[in-house]
Design a protein that fits this description.
By secondary structure, this protein is α+β, with helices and mostly antiparallel strands. A seven-stranded antiparallel β-sheet has the order 1-7-6-5-4-3-2.
């Protein structure tokens, strides 16, 4: 099986784009959504392009952290961040928010979560791939499949919470 480098999943949410964006644009809320994230520490009070944060993750008994920097924060449209480990690039994670409603009285938004593996070539890619397997227990070749399942759970949790108000 060929390695997947990019994964994306989408869900329709019965809410306005600004409501959906608000749910995904604060990394601290990832503890509510993600099956892996159990804590997030953000530098500063507000989150915008350039904001740095640390994500603490868990799969079973394995625990690790990543350092992240927000690369896109466009209200109602897009939120993304670059992940690194020990200064080496790991991945790009993001959300696209699209208004797909035909009726203003019945808002509907498509939320797409995406991931791109940045461990492509060179010495640092090999090192961070080995570190990823050691810390997470997931070899680089299987990370896309693990992330796809996690994205589905994350998107379902976001949809449920946002629709509940």
């Amino acid at each position: 099986m060929e390695r997947e480098w990019v994964v994306e999943e989408s869900v329709a949410v019965a809410a306005r784009p600004d409501e959906v964006y608000a749910a995904v644009a604060d990394p601290r809320r990832m503890v509510e959504w993600s099956p892996e994230v159990f804590a997030v520490r953000v530098r500063g009070r507000t989150v915008g392009q350039g904001t740095r944060f640390v994500g603490f993750n868990r799969i079973g008994w394995r625990v690790w952290f990543t350092t992240c920097r927000v690369t896109a924060a466009v209200p109602g449209k897009a939120f993304a961040f670059r992940v690194s480990s020990f200064g080496m690039p790991v991945a790009l994670w993001g959300y696209r928010v699209e208004d797909v409603s035909d009726d203003p009285s019945a808002p509907r938004t498509r939320l797409t979560e995406y991931w791109e593996d940045l461990r492509r070539e060179g010495r640092s890619a090999k090192i961070v791939s080995v570190l990823g397997k050691v810390f997470t227990g997931v070899p680089a070749e299987r990370r896309a499949a693990v992330n796809r399942a996690g994205m589905r759970a994350t998107l379902d949790r976001i949809r449920t919470a946002v629709e509940a108000g």
